[in-house]
Specification:
5-stranded antiparallel β-sheet, OB fold (Dihydrolipoamide Acetyltransferase, E2P), mainly beta, 4% helix, 3-stranded antiparallel β-sheet
Length: 132
């Protein structure tokens, strides 16, 4: 895919979901139909909150032997999202406050396109940002 077209994919650089105006429910990933209201639902695309807290997590050992963290995160509007945390496994705990950021997912070979997307980092008041 040509890089400029890849960058224009609307879900790449924002945390987007849907909202049903009829029952006031939020969904991630986005849905075309409200599971509560069915045909009566009025669905709109919305930006989701970028902050939340860790409900649960697991440490996964990658192919290269380095660990990474996958967490179930509850956003400020109660939507639950599964995402990678960009931090060291020993930093994570249940209830930890996190915020959305955009980080490298991978690349197509050594000289290929670098893919970025949504990950979460620990939310800290001192300006600290994990480099993981």
């Amino acid at each position: 895919m040509i890089p400029r077209f890849w960058r224009k994919i609307k879900y790449r650089y924002s945390l987007r979901g849907t909202h049903c105006k009829n029952c006031n429910s939020y969904f991630y990933p986005p849905r075309d139909l409200c599971p509560n209201c069915r045909r009566k639902g009025i669905i709109e695309e919305v930006n989701l909150p970028t902050c939340g807290r860790v409900l649960s997590y697991t440490v996964v050992w990658g192919e290269k032997g380095s660990p990474y963290v996958i967490a179930l995160i509850e956003l400020e509007n109660k939507v639950k999202i599964l995402s990678q945390l960009a931090c060291r496994p020993e930093e994570v705990y249940d209830g930890m406050e996190v915020e959305c950021t955009f980080r490298k997912y991978g690349e197509d070979g050594d000289a290929g396109i670098i893919y970025y997307g949504t990950k979460f980092i620990p939310k800290r008041g001192d300006g600290y940002v994990s480099k993981e």
